[in-house]
Amino acid sequence: MIAATASHTVGRRDGRESGPVIRARFAPAAAAASLTIAAGAGAAALVIAYRRAEWGQDGAFTWFWAGMLVFSLPAVWWAVRRGSSARLRLAVLIGYACFTYLPKLLRNPAGPLYHDEYAHWGQANDILLDGVLFQQNPIVRVIGDYPGLHACVASLATLTGVTVWHAAVFVLVCAHVLLTLGVAALAGQIWPDARVAAAAAVVYSLNSSYLYFDTQLGYESLAIGLLVWALVAALRAIKGGRVGWSWLFVLLTVAIVATHHLTAIWLTGMLGLVAITCTIVKVPARTAWALTAVSGLSVALWMAAVSPRTGKYLEPYLGRALGQFSGLAGGGSGGRTLFSQSVAPWWEQYAAFAAPCCAALAAAGAAILWWQRRGSTEPFAKAVSAAMLLIGALYFPATLLILTPSGAEGARRSWAFSYLGIAVAVAPLIIALLDRARRPISGSGALLLAGCGLVMVGNTAAGMNPSYRFPGPPVFGSDTRAATPEVLAASEWLRETHGRGARLVADRYSGLIFGSYGEQEPATGSESFPAYHLYLADPGEPMPAALLAQLRDWRFQYLVVDRRMAEQVPEIKIYFENNEPIPHTGEPGFTSAQLTKFDTLPWLIKVYDGPHIAIYRFDFDSLGQTVHMGAR
């Protein structure tokens, strides 16, 4: 029998190698050749898609997804193929991770573009210039309390001499690759089959944050990769590994806590579920509970000592969302219409609705498979896979929050975490279905690849607006298209003539540019500082005395007014901040008189006037004078 086995695996008795051996020997070369050609074709299609979108031509969506799928689907096939070696599978996953970073890299290769990118880029720049951590950020106040990403980027820029942006791109590409490999390593801690591990990495890459949100310059982009590897270290420690795995977990946990609040909270919750399921299944859970306590204590201490405002920052994303959702369920207002006035093609919109259904079907199948195999599965794998099923189940109620204005942002940000549970739980089901087929390319394999493409398209469409994904002409009220030549010129003028670090009031979109490229400190309003009431006041109406006192006491110097607020409706339906008291009825939220009244106020001096942008300097010493607020 040994001789027969050797003959089968090494070669035939006449000296010629058998077909499987030949295929195994040339598989790496075939994979490299096919994926190189596919990557070149895919990259060219992505460039065509962006160019067509930039010039307002049709076909951008078709070209984009043709470019993505022409590489992704063959890469998936090579990753889960039976005959792929461990090295080939690793190389394919690395190539897949690099290619899936390409859409974001091509979208803005030279500088920040998304809302949070302006904030994080400015924060890293400030650290590079001043060498001081924990500085308050003018765009997103809380990120100064979490300097992990900014310190990393600024340190790399200092050591290499490259710009902050190019240092950030390098960090983010590495983080994206490590995230993809980390998901495979996490699944490998539960299931010994390397194909299951690769399938988990592929399924995770289908979540709505993978292509754009978790590739942007943001603290989650770095922290979520650290979370996955922290879970890998935790599982190794729980299984009885060396104490070094526990110390590695502690080190990664500290790094996560210092980088991103939400990721640290999710890490604690995920480990808590693992500890609970291990306890139920009667797997030794002392280490799991200890690591959960370490994570939770780290989060609590950091938020208490370093960032006590984090809770207040996160509250609107859930608290108000639940209130709006309850009102929606009761037949009241508070809902939002999905894809309202979207330019996304019909097939993308349908795919967005189909993707959660596919995820639900896959999760149900994974739960059934887990139940069927519960008697033969090793206890540790049974416990952890049950925890992953529970984590994945959180994805589905979160999708309902997308129907509320306040909950939409929080729902999107939760999907990157809950999809980790779906990926790890569903991967064994995918391999089980593929193993039923006797041929390398079968009907079930083709159906799974088609489903992979459908979910990738649908989740990406649900997670990001077209203006975030595609270039194009300036659009008022779009974070990604806020950097118009006029706003850039106004911010540059203020910086060159009045220096950096001035406190000013502005709308959301002007504030992005003045707070990043302009190096100023904008405030766009909040419940405790309702700066938007300056703009909402009608001519002749007195300004709120408490607000004026705040402006004076906090030493605000300038007011920026974008007169387009009286002419156009913001694309993302926000003028200042998520919970602003401004009606969104499809008509501009301001009148021309409300935005030109500042010319008549004695305590405001116009220092800059452009086609749409005006800048006023506060003169609080004139507040005691008689104010005539009628339009001139």
From TrEMBL:
Entry annotated with the keyword tRNA processing: no
Transmembrane domains' residue ranges: 26-50, 62-80, 164-187, 219-238, 245-267, 287-305, 350-371, 383-403, 415-434, 446-464
Keyword annotations of the record: Membrane, Transmembrane, Transmembrane helix
Signal peptide (residue range): none
Organism superkingdom: Bacteria
Name by which UniProt lists this protein: Membrane protein
